[in-house]
Amino acid sequence: MYPADRKYSKDHEWILLSGAEGKVGITDYAQKQLEEHDVAELFAPMSGEVTAVNTALAEKPETVNTDPHGAWMVVLKLDDAAEAQELLDHQQYAGVAR
Length: 98
Fold this sequence. Notes:
Elements lengths: L6 E2 L4 E6 L2 E6 L1 H6 L14 E6 L2 H4 L3 H4 L7 E5 L11 H7 L2
Antiparallel strand pairs: 1-2, 2-3, 3-5, 4-5
């Protein structure tokens, strides 16, 4: 249910790492907890500088609901890639998201 190619936070964000960058989004579990029109804060699962924002979500925010693991929200230029070791893999996260 949760893609194996990314890391997860206990706050229900995912990060897809690519070198010194990572795309960040919310998990399927997180989007199910939000009701229609809800707005919530996005916590970065790793430290870094936001270098891109997925502006397409402004036009089609429902994409987060229909494809939560494909709809990235921001791209981070990572401060310390080693922080990924503190995050959960997909199997560990599945145990948290119940």
